[in-house]
Design goal:
The protein is α/β, with parallel strands linked by helices. The chain has 10 helices and 6 strands; from the N terminus they run E-H-E-H-E-H-E-E-H-E-H-H-H-H-H-H. The radius of gyration is 20 Å and the shape is globular.
Amino acid sequence: MTILFLHGWHSTPGGTKPTFLAQHGHTVINPRLPDEDFEEAVRIAQSEFDKHEPQVVVGSSRGGAVAMNINSGNAKLVLLCPGWKTWGNARTVKPGTVILHSRADDVVPFAHSEELVKNSGLPASALIEVGSDHRLADPDSLVKMLEACENSDNAILLPRRMEPPMTPDPEPIDLSKLRPGPIRHESLPPEMLEQIKAVYDVIGQYLDTTLEQFEIGFMRDMHPESEVAVWCSITAAWLAYHEKFLGDEVLPDEDERKMLGALITISTGVKDLEKLGVPVEVGQRLLACYDGLSSQ
């Protein structure tokens, strides 16, 4: 499946969510969208849509507003905490659209998505409450996003055009609050920082991020201790695989990234070997390494 992923304000291509979709076998088109020119962002998104003809368009935060303002034809829309009240003119979405949003989102209020569902005449089931913050980068949110992309017919039969219901002019979101997820913790305990650095020292070169950016990601999490524990398990499984099956040899970077991506996917609870993005035998061994840690 081809998916057009439109990132949020002050975000960049190649983030956790589009990477997760790509690791599950989908072709992900993830263009860079300018932060300060919404019309240009829409133009770029429309150009990429016309060029690649994706079956699904995923829009995150401001990217959700971009997705609502392009002509997406019969493609399905999956919107993640869409910032439709701040950017663009679209005030409704088409049938078949799925919206994922956290009730704890302190950047784009959950009520905005409830209003969008009502304006658009969508069933209540179109709005999926998930996650603990605006980022929707936790394992459960990632899996729900994947399911929203995969678990339906992507060709949507559109009814005749109807005028959107009259609604009051929306109140814009305070732009000063919009950032790549709020910093929930001004600092982390020294022992936790040591764990994060230990993880980064082993697998950081395959993450395409700096140690500082990696640390900040945990500072945005509601429960950083849980996320650190997951990453420690991923790293331990990576080390176990190299010790047991590779004699501690290191593979080319591309292969290492695929294995690490498979372990990240496994950490979300996925057991389907076909969705790990690595050969079946490798996937079986990675599963054994990761599950072996949880049984100890």
